Every structure is written in C-alpha cells, then in structure tokens.
Amino acid sequence: MSVKKEEQVLLAENETAPAGWGHKHVLDLDGFTRADIELVFKNTNVMKEILSREIRRVPTLRGKTIVNVFYEPSTRTRASFEMAAKNLSADVINLTPTGSSIEKGESLLDTVLTLQALGADAIVIRHQCSGAPYFVSRIFRHSVLNAGDGAHAHPTQALLDMYTIREHLGRLGGLKVVIVGDILHSRVARSNIIGLTTMGAEVSVCGPATLLPPEDIFPRVKFHHNLDKAVEGADILMPLRLQLERQQGGLFPSIREYARLYQITPERLSRAAPGALVMHPGPMNEGVEIAPEVAHGAQSVIEEQVANGVAIRMALLTLVLLGTGHVN
Ligand code: CP
Q: Cα(287)–Cα(294) distance, rounded to whole angstroms?
C-alpha cells in the first residue's frame, strides 16, 4: 500500500472509529485493545516508509519538547526514543542521574515539576522502581511513556517485538511463542505476555522454577521447565537476558548449569517449527541464554527488532501527542 493510501486509511479509521485513539499515556499494554495495537502497527508502517526515505525527517512534532529521563542504563530504548523524536522534528532533552540534579538527590516529584515548568510536552521515563511512570502520569499534565519500570512493564519493547513477528509471519493469532528465562523479574516478558495474548498468540514460558512467577498470575500462559519440550513446534523463541546478579540471590546454581538447561542452541532451534524466529530484547549474554551462532544466525531477527523500535516509538509519540495517526 502506498503511503498516501496508508495515510488515508489511518485518517479514515480515526474519523470513523468512535473510540479512536484514547490513550494519553503509554504505561503498559493492559489497557490496550487489539484495535489499539492494530492502530499502532498501521502508524508504524507509515513511519517505516518515512525511515526508508533519503531524508528521514517529517515536521509532525515540530514545536514539541520531549524529555527522556533514564534513571537506569539503556542503549536501544533511549537511542531509539531520541531518534524517533528527532525524526518527527521534536526538540529532545536527555536526562540521566549522572550530570543532572538527580545526582544531588532531587526527588522524582521535583524533577517532573521542573520539567513541566520548563515546558515539556512528553516525558519518556525508565526507572528502577515498578510504578514510577504511573506516579509521573499523575503529576505531569502531559503524556508519559514508560521506557521500562522495574520488573513491571516495557510496553514499547513488546509492541516492537509483536510488530517484528507480524512483519515476518504475517499474523500473531495462533502463533506459538516461547519466552525463556527469568520471567519473574522481566518487564519485557510481562508486557509481551499481555500484548501477545491480546493478539491471540499462544504464549509459553520456560525457566527454572525459581525464575518463574506463580502460574495463576498468567492463567492463559503455559508453564514449562524443560526447554527441549517447550521449543517443540514453536514459531518464536524469545530468550531473555539472564540477570547475572540473580545468581548471588541463589535463584539458579551456576551460569554453566543455566546455559546447559536453558540456552537456545542450534539443536534446540532445530526442534522448533520450520522458519521459527529467534528474538531477544537485548542486551544479550551470548553463550549464556543464547548461543552466538543462533543470535547471529539466519533465523535471528534481533537487529530488526532494534530497527523497528524507532518506527514503533515514532508512531507512539505521534499518537499520544497528537491523538491521531496523521503524518504531515
Ligand atoms: N531492550 C531494552 O530495553 O534494551 P536497552 O536496555 O538497551 O534499552
């Protein structure tokens, strides 16, 4: 579909759908319907076309100021939010604890009130405390986008993961997705479980019992401890970064043991469905949760996930700030 045609579809949908885009914030996917996710994907298609142009910049958010506040380290999320905002001609400010008054002990409340007084139109926040973006959304007058909060949610990661799957396999409904590793502490797993089940995928999780949540938290998800069984017939394998500090907490005996039982190896990948995709939210511990030859092999879409992160975040910034998928 041409971009002009795609834009017309978006406009037509916005004009005819009575509910339309009803989200001021992107905090998690639990408030997102299937139609919301479809609308994000349609806008992302438009953004991808923009990114394919020689000059990858449109004036859609000219005059808007977006502040990225990252209390935790990040490469992909932070860089792609910054690129997304700049591609849409917004002004971007980046804050991290180092070099800002957060280092002097300024509270989150005062930081947000300061950014509001300075005229920020949106805050993108990553924070080590689950719920921090919700707190910010209650005091900040404008839009808040969650770039990862504690072990709670990473909605933009889940959206880019789902978009990447759909781009490759043409659908999400009915696909078998196996998420492997530390599900208990993973915001990526939680947001993906919510998003993927909303879209009709069959989600399984697999890991040592100490790294899985109680089964009743995710009643629509299958729980496995044996990865060799879990991968059989899977369409998507999504190992998570093993948070190595968990070993000190006694949650798994050794990295070598974990790798033996839970690493995505070429042999395990061969048990999955033909053409199964290998995904990873990054950063990877190659040789621990994923074998290097799988991470960089023909079935890996890990770099595409990163690339799609820019388009997804352009779509989300446009939707929350303008309330529409229209692209100027
Ligand atoms: N996937 C992800 O959140 O990566 P970063 O920590 O590099 O942003």
A: 10
Q: Are 40 and 319 in contact (CB under 8 A)?
A: yes
Best of 71, 77, 159, 187 for a ligand 1 pocket test (most atoms within 8 Å of beta carbon): 77
Buried b (16+ CB within 10 A) or exposed e, 94-114: bbbeeeeebeeeeebeebbee
So what's the pLDDT on residue 12?
Answer: 36
For residue 61, give Cα distances in angstroms to 51, 146, 282, 289.
16, 19, 29, 39
The candidate with the shortest Cα–Cα distance to 125, out of 156, 101, 98, is 156
The pLDDT assigned to 11 comes to: 38
Rounded to the nearest angstrom, the distance between the alpha carbon of 66 and the centre of ligand 1 is 19
149 pLDDT band (50/70/90 cuts)? Answer: very high
Give the model's pLDDT for residue 325.
Answer: 60
Q: Is 89 in the pocket of ligand 1 (CB under 6 A)?
A: no
| Buried/exposed code over 222-234 (b: 16+ C-beta within 10 A; e: otherwise) | ebbeebeebbeeb
pTM summary value: 0.92
Residue 273 CB contacts under 8 Å (≥ 6 apart), including other chains: 176, 233, 234, 235
Q: Is 211 exposed, middle or buried (0-12, 13-18, 19+ CB in 10 A)?
A: buried
H helical segments located in 67-198: 76-87, 108-117, 132-139, 155-169, 187-198
Q: In order of start, what are the domains of the chain with their CATH numbers?
A: 3-150+308-322 (3.40.50.1370), 155-297 (3.40.50.1370)
pLDDT attached to residue 20: 76
